[in-house]
LysR family transcriptional regulator, transcriptional activator of nhaA (Amphritea atlantica), 302 residues
Amino acid sequence: MNFKHLRYFLVVAQEGSINKASEKLHLTPQTISGQLKLLEHELGARLFRKQGRNLKLTKAGQHALNYAEDIFLLGDELKQSIHNPVSLKQQRFNIGIADVLPKLITYHLLEPALNLNDASRLICEEGPLPSLLADLATQKLDLVLADRPLDASFHIRGYNHLLGECGLSFFATRNVAATYRANFPASLEGAPMLMPSADTERGMGLKRWFERYKIRPDIRVECADTALIEAFGLSGAGIFCAPTVIEQQMTRQYGVEVIGRMDDIRERFYAISLERRVSHPGVLAVCNAARMALFDELEPPE
DNA sequence: CCTCGATTGAAATGTGTCTA
DNA sequence: TAGACACATTTCAATCGAGG
């Protein structure tokens, strides 16, 4: 398989006909037909089926077309990057965000990368930490933001950059908050609670905290996705937690109220990269600017 | 039955590799 | 470095098949 086969295939797919493609490519239809046959043989699948006098992509053809378009896009990028010292590859900042991370925290962590002079394009992928780390290992991602450091259990070589730490606050809608604010934290006994999954750092931290204070809340929802927990919380389904550093924004933007704070168990945020000394401008921006700005400037007033 | 587009086989041409 | 060789690509001519 070579670039030519793919080029002919791409043009035939775009034109819907070998004849039209041959005019566009300044070749005879026989040439293109022959090369398409070779490509189909190489891939072991029919790429086109006849529809009247024209050709229509098969399912395999559609699949191949997606790849072909990507390959030529990459080829164009390569050409551009040869003439441009700051390549497009460098300008893209592929970042994985563990789904347990609150969206507001994520936004503040990534904001410095948006303000870079070279106008990086931020490509965000959200998901479970193990799958994001697998993508980091294969260099699909430049950086992963997580609520826990990379350790030996992941079997991946990488470096942790601590971005900051803070306590947790308990939030709820006005009516729910009014019921449970007095006598906090004892008031949480039997309170409707929206819990992070038990396998997340926050979930484990909360569990320990409840055990220490001998509190048994009524757990209504348990899930790793903080956005979903917040959605339940905003509908009045129960009490949920978020980092204390975004307390003001939570109350201002979502109209929820603070019930109390949990300062004795700290939540930490990490940037995980493959390099010890990161050189990617986006990674640097997150690791440095965010570390300095977020947890100092956003600390809520006492 | 004619036209148009796809396909096939044979031959020509182009390109890369090996060897003396 | 030139010539031989192998292989890929392209073209020409003929054929097939669908649609009008």
Remarks:
- Residues 296-302 of chain A have pLDDT under 50 and may be disordered.
